[in-house]
Structure formats: structure tokens, C-alpha cells
Amino acid sequence: MRYTTVLFDADGTLLDFARSEDEAVRATMIFGGIEPDDEKVATYSRINDGLWKMLERGEIEKNVLLYRRFELFCEHYGYTADARAMAREYMEQLSQRGYLLDGARELLEALHGKVRMYIITNGVDFIQRRRYAHSGLEKYFDGLFISGELGFEKPDPRYFECVEAKIENFSAKDTIVVGDSLTSDIKGANNYSLDSCWYNPKGKPLAAGITTNYVASNFGEVLRVIERGEL
Questions:
Q1: In the annotation, is 9 catalytic?
Q2: Residue 231 has pLDDT above 90, yes or no
Q3: Do 175 and 196 touch, CB atoms closer than 8 A?
Q4: Which of 9, 11, 22, 180 is catalytic?
């Protein structure tokens, strides 16, 4: 194996966050007395994505983000629903949903027992731990590192300092970060001088100022990167 320690992002890399989010948002809208539809779900998702980017840049606190996204959603449509109650309901709904992306289990099966694998994720601890258990990922991984428990968010180097401190005999040269987010996973690897594999099935362009060792369009390529250090 070229890499013996693999730090996998969760949502959008192994877990189908889009499906989980869609189901949880629709259930939350119904809870708030709002009739859900595709346009409303897409609007919420855009607001949420924007706030998470702000969090990565240190422009908003996570505890504010968790309810602010619903405040902004309600303000956008002029709804008078209780945004904070919706925020609590959404977290409960989301925590119950952890779906693997097609092909993810096969990738993990191919690597299980051959490399050390860890989940690195930004998120709320109770949500991510429940989704992690629901998805069946537990048997494949040697550890789960959640930003809400570590006190720092990817791409902050301090997040990766905490991860290194918790992995016995950590070796940077034998470690690779695999993730779908340029601004969180890949930039985080850049900030901590780790190799990275950008999981990019949609063929998005690489952003200025961010570099990656590999760009994989499918899980077969991810496997080759980890095994041989090549696509």
C-alpha cells in the first residue's frame, strides 16, 4: 500500500448528504407548517452551504449557524415559523439519516484490514455519531474525529494537530486525506502538509490557491491512489 493511514471525509465523500439533507429539510418544513417543494429545499441548501463556507473562514460561530440558516430561510420567504424550533427539529431529523453513496461500501471493503482508516468531519457531534452508526461505517474505521468534539473545524491546522495526536504512530508521509470539499478537506490537507485526493465525481474545476496530489472521479480511482499512489 502506498498509504497506510487514510483520513476520509464523511458527507459527500462516503455518505450521501444530499439525500439526508433533502429528507430532513422536508420533514422540518412540515414540522414548521411549511409545504415543502424542490425550490424551497434548494433555497435552504444554498443558504446552508454559504454559512458553512463562512464557518470554514472563521466568520460565524457554529452554534449561530445551526439556527441562523433557518432564520434566513424564513426571512427569504416571509414565513413566521419558529426558526429555532425548526433548527432543533432538523438536527434530530438529520441525525436519523446516514446513507452510503453507491460504491462506498465496496471501497471500504477493499481497504478494510489493509490500511488504518479514520473519519474526519465537520459537524455536530451527536448528529454525526448517530449518522455514522446508522450508515454501518463503524466496522470499517479505527476512529471518528468530529470538529464539534475537537474544538476546531477543517481546514484549521489545529484540527489536524488534534487528529495526529490521537493516532498512534502517525506518519505524515504515509497519510492521505480523501474528501470532496476543496475548501475544507483539500485545503486542510494543504495547511497541514498532507497528501490529498480530491473526490470529484462531477468534474468541478480546481480552485485557485488550492493544490491536490490526485483528482479521482470515482471510487475505483480512489482505491488505486491509496494502493499505488497513482490513478
A1: yes
A2: no
A3: no
A4: 9
